[in-house]
Every structure is written in structure tokens, then in C-alpha cells.
Amino acid sequence: MAQFDAALAEFDLAAGTGAGTTTPLGGNGGFGAPPPPPPPPAPPVRSGRPRWLRWTIRLVAAGIILLVLAIAWLALTAPLSKSLQPPLPPSITLLSAEGTPIAQRGANIGKPVDATKLPKHVTQAFLAVEDRRFYSHWGIDPRGILRAMVHNTMSGGVREGGSTITQQLAKNAFLDSDRTAARKLREVMIAFWLEAWLTKDEILSRYLSNVYFGDNAYGLSAASQHYFSRKPQDLTTAQAAMLAGLVKAPSRLAPTGNLKGARERQAVVVSTMKAAGFLTASEARAVQPAKLRVAKGDDLPSGTYFADWVIPAARDRAGGVGTDLRVTTTLESRIQRAAERAVRRAGLRQTQVALVAMHPDGRVIAMVGGKNYKASPFNRAVQARRQPGSTFKLFVYLAALRSGLSPDSPVQDEPLTIGDWSPKNSDGRYLGTIPLTRAFARSSNVASARLTQEVGVRNVIRAARDLGISTPIPNEATIALGTANVSLLELTAAYAAIAAGEAPVRPHGLKDEEQTSWFERLRNSSRPLGRRELEGMRELLAASIRGTGHQANLPIEAFGKTGTTQDSRDALFVGYAGDIVTGVWLGNDDNTPNPGLAGGGLPARIWRDFMTEALGVPLPPPPPEVNEDVEETTDNSLDAAGDALDEAGMTIDQARDTIEDQVQGMGLNLRFDRDGGIQVERGGGDRRGPPPPREPDARRFEEEE
């Protein structure tokens, strides 16, 4: 028993806390109490900064480092002195399609201006239309960007920009014209850079000193002197508004080439100045359209009508800063020389002339805008808007063919009245029911008016729009006779659509012209014309060149249409043969009448003269000379009679007695048939007898426009 107690005591010692202590026995049967639970772990020691604060500090540090690097990059690549330099190449050299230089242009750079020394209405015109919150934002204008995005989305394309004046200065002075996100990001960075180091007035001064105003003028000083022959400090509100309006599209709105567009843009600027509070309502109403007073500069010897037309597009393609630029155009030197020779050989005196030739795809290969470029650089092929006369009937008959008619369909060549308008044929002759081919070939006015009434004016306008006519067309039946003004360039391009078989054809002067975006490519894409309507129009044009346009006929297949406006103020011939489409216009700059001028006369002969050389087509040999005096005299008299009809614009009924009297004295009888054909017989029979029968395919068509 004593041994058992000793073993139990040893067990109690072994079951203790291990600290050399024993637990007294209690009331639990002699066993010791359980050990106490271990103490809880100590909580981790927390740092004095929250986690989000640490990340914020890291981001700020990284931003500071990037900012320092950006400032260093801007200091090296975008020095502030560069914002005073206009972004242009020293010169642009235009090359012909063969690679031969044809023109060279340098830039007209104005002296820097100080915005603080300009009249308030001058700077306010630019602020109102370009950046109304210029003095309150910090380089970019979020409200302006949002507004532009909304407007562009609603209009389905890029119609408005959100760039501030500071961004425009950054783009003009330091960047190219690429439309990429990377360039836009650089533009924003440089705008912040300019805002940080320059005052608002300094930014505005540098912007006005290098912005492009069209017509090769850079800077406000150059533009004010070029367009108005005065200093910027002397500009009127109207003149300042016009210049401010040019900045949006300087090449297109330059008033020397598009005065109407520039004045319309001027009105927009005046309206924005009123809305911004810069002008009162009465002051805005008092602003009149600005009148140009273009300063005469030193004309380059290589200056041409074609160069003036294509230079703006060439400069736009140039983009940003560069050195000498060489741009290949579509002009073909041999064809251009042929056009100039054809115009010179016409022997024009006071009457002006224009000629434009292109390939069916729209590549312009020759252009003559007047008789003498040095005497008058106004380009009548591009800038003039004149009535096209019967050449507009192309769209009337195209609408008729689209409605289901064919060249053989009948049409009434009889007088009619549409509202208070009663069109008449120029010679007073009406042939009753005739096929469309005959009506188009003899250029019947009443037939064209009747077709317009039947198919609808809107469908005629739609046909003109489909073929590329962009100028305003009144919604009235008189357009059937060509009362809507168009340019010769657009009219020729419309005929090129028939030659190409697709429309519209966009005339262009730069080789391998590129569209800037998918939207532009989609908007300007051409669509094939319907096969039936295309074949029908070609049949009509072929008949016309054998009718009223017979003086333009070639020994190869040719197509064309004459046009003569009221009182012979304008005379045109437009047509194509081979792979060349050509339009010729004659008239006076002051729109005064030209007695005896007709589209089937001199314009048709200029067209034929040019086309024979351009296409290398030999004309048929002249008829053999006749030794008999009577025959010689007869031929000369008949030629004179033909000239009287074609050039003097006399009708057959009016000229019949005069011509018969001239020929009667030669011992000949002159007879007219119902179709206007002329029969000459020897002998002295009854000059008023019935006309001899004629074969249908031998008839001739008289010019009635």
C-alpha cells in the first residue's frame, strides 16, 4: 500500500504544468484541476497610412515622373518659338501626268500680329466662331468636344470640330494632318504645354499669325492684304467676319474662287458674334457682305487655270510641315496644248471661252478657263455658274427613260402651256408626234417641257443629282430648257457618267486621289447606271451629234449635245468620243447677248477641232474642187446659207425667202421639204412647187434650242 501511494505521487508530479508546481487535490476524486487555456495571439501591428493612400502616393509620384519626361520631350520637340512659324512647305511644284513640272507656287506669309493691338471686332469674330470660351478653358474645351460629338453623330459624319484655338495652334505649328488617336493625344499635350507657358493673348496672337486663309495666304496680315488690300488694324466687321469664316475650309471658301460661299460663311460668323454678345441685333443687321479688293501680286510665269484649281487640293494633301513638295497631277501636256491651240484657232474677239476635258473616270486632262490667263485669271470652267441651255436636256431625257420610255417612244412636238409658261421652239416649227430620238436630235423645247411635265420636275432634278450636279436647281418646269446655273466642270462630269456607265463621276486633278476616310469613300462612291437607260441615252446623244451638233461630228463614234441660252448669252457643246469627255462654253463675262452665237456653231467646231487632235483622228478629206464657176458659186452660197442658219440663229421660215432669192439669180431652183431639207436644181421651174420625196434616213435636223 505504501508503494502504491508513492507511485501515485510520482504520477501527480508528472501530470503537472511542467513548471515544477503541483495542484492540490480537491473534490474530484483526487485528480488535479485542468490547465488554464493559452492566452490569445497578439493583434498585428498596423501601419499609420491606409492602403489607398499608399497607392495614391505611388500614382502621383509616377505622374510627376511622366510629367517631367513629357516636359523634357516637349521642350525638345515643340519649342515655343516654333508656334510663330506657319506650317507650310516653302513651295509646291505641280507635275503633269508625264512627270513634267507645269507650275510652282510659294507661300504668302504675313507678318506676325499682336492680338492686343487689333480692334475688338477682329479678335471677337475669330473667338465667336472658333472658340467662344477661349479665355476660360485651360487648353481643351470638354463642352465643345461633347457638342461636336453630338452634332456629328446626328449628321452622320464629321461636320463640326471640337478643337480649341490652342489645339489648332498646336496642330498647325507642330503636327501633321493625320487623323489618328496618337496625333490627337499629342495635340492635347502640346495644348497644355502652350497654356502653361504662354498667356492667352500670346496664344491668340500666334494663332492669328500662322492660320491658313486660302488662296496661298498664311496669317491675318497676308490675308487682309490679299483679299482687301488693307492692314489687319483697318479691317471692318464684315471683312473680319469673312476672314474668320474662311478658317473652317480655306481652300473651298477662298472668296477669290467662291465668293458666294465665303459670304454665306460670313453671315454665319456675324450670327455667332450676335449670339455671343459681341454684336447687338442692330449692329449685326448693319453688317453688309464684304467686298473684295484683291491685291495684285507677282504672277508666276507658270500660273495656269488648271494650277489655280488644283493647288488647294495639293496643299491639303501636303499635310504638315515639310520641305519642297512635288505633286503629280492628272493634266496631260499634249492634250492641254491641243486645247489651247483649238481656242486660239477660233479667232475669238470679245467673247470668252472655257474648255475642260477629262477621262470618263473624272481625271481632268486639260483645262482652259479663258482666252488669256494673264489678262483674266478668273476660271470660267470652274468658277463661273451659267445656264446650260439644251445641254440640260440630258437629265430630262434620262428621267424619261427611267420612267419606262424608250428612244422610239412618241412625244408631242406641239405648243403647250404649263401654268403661266408657254415654251416655244426657237424656229417656230412643230412636227407633231415624233419619236424621242428625233425630239432630242432637233432639240425640241416643247417636247422637253412636255416630258418634264409628264415625268415630274422632281425626277428630273433627281437625275441631275445622280449624275453629280450639286448647284441649286429650282423646282419648276422651266429647268427643262436649262434655266438652272451650273459650272462647265460639273456639267462635263455629268456627261462623263454616261461615257463611264456609272455615276456620279467626281472630277479631280491629282493623280491617285485618295479619300480620307471610309465615310468619304462611301459618300463619294459611284453606282452603275441601268443598262436600258444607259443604252437609250447613248442612242439619243449619237443622234444629236448628227442633228443640231453635226458640226462637231467625227469620223469615229461620237456623242454630244448642243446648248444655247436665251438671246445667245451662252453657247455650249458637251460630248465624248474615245476615252475623252469635253465641254466647251462661249459667252460674255457680263452676260450680254451674242447675236448669231449657237451651240451647234462655233462651240461645236472648237470641240471637233480639239477632239481630232487629242484623239489623233484625221478628218475626212474635203470634197474635190469643181472647175465650173457655177458649181463653185453654188457651194459658196449654200455654205453662207448654212452659216446664216447656224450662226445667226435665223429660223428656216424667216430665212427661206432670203436664201431662195440669193440662189434664184444663179439660174437654180431652191426647194425646202417639210423636214427642212434643201434641194437645189438647175433650171427655172416653179420655185414654189412641191418638194421631191426623200428617204427617211436622209433627213437633217434643224437646231432648235
TrEMBL record:
Task: Indicate, by first and last residue, each region the UniProt record lists as having compositional bias (Pro residues).
Answer: 33-44
The Penicillin-binding protein transpeptidase domain sits at 354-578
Annotated GO CC locations: outer membrane-bounded periplasmic space
Which residue ranges does the record annotate as region Disordered?
19-47, 668-705
Spell out the reaction equation it catalyses.
Answer: [GlcNAc-(1->4)-Mur2Ac(oyl-L-Ala-gamma-D-Glu-L-Lys-D-Ala-D-Ala)](n)-di-trans,octa-cis-undecaprenyl diphosphate + beta-D-GlcNAc-(1->4)-Mur2Ac(oyl-L-Ala-gamma-D-Glu-L-Lys-D-Ala-D-Ala)-di-trans,octa-cis-undecaprenyl diphosphate = [GlcNAc-(1->4)-Mur2Ac(oyl-L-Ala-gamma-D-Glu-L-Lys-D-Ala-D-Ala)](n+1)-di-trans,octa-cis-undecaprenyl diphosphate + di-trans,octa-cis-undecaprenyl diphosphate + H(+); Preferential cleavage: (Ac)2-L-Lys-D-Ala-|-D-Ala. Also transpeptidation of peptidyl-alanyl moieties that are N-acyl substituents of D-alanine
UniProt keywords (A-Z) are: Carboxypeptidase, Cell shape, Cell wall biogenesis/degradation, Glycosyltransferase, Hydrolase, Membrane, Multifunctional enzyme, Peptidoglycan synthesis, Protease, Transferase, Transmembrane, Transmembrane helix
GO molecular function of the protein, one example?
Answer: serine-type D-Ala-D-Ala carboxypeptidase activity
Biased amino acid composition, Basic and acidic residues: 683-705
Which ranges carry the Glycosyl transferase family domain?
A: 102-274
Q: Which residues cross the membrane?
A: 55-76
The biological pathway it contributes to is: Cell wall biogenesis; peptidoglycan biosynthesis
GO BP terms: namely:
cell wall organization; peptidoglycan biosynthetic process; proteolysis; regulation of cell shape
By sequence similarity, the record places it as follows: In the N-terminal section; belongs to the glycosyltransferase 51 family.
Name this protein carries in UniProt: Penicillin-binding protein
Q: Which organism is it from?
A: Sphingomonas desiccabilis
| Higher taxonomy | Bacteria, Pseudomonadati, Pseudomonadota, Alphaproteobacteria, Sphingomonadales
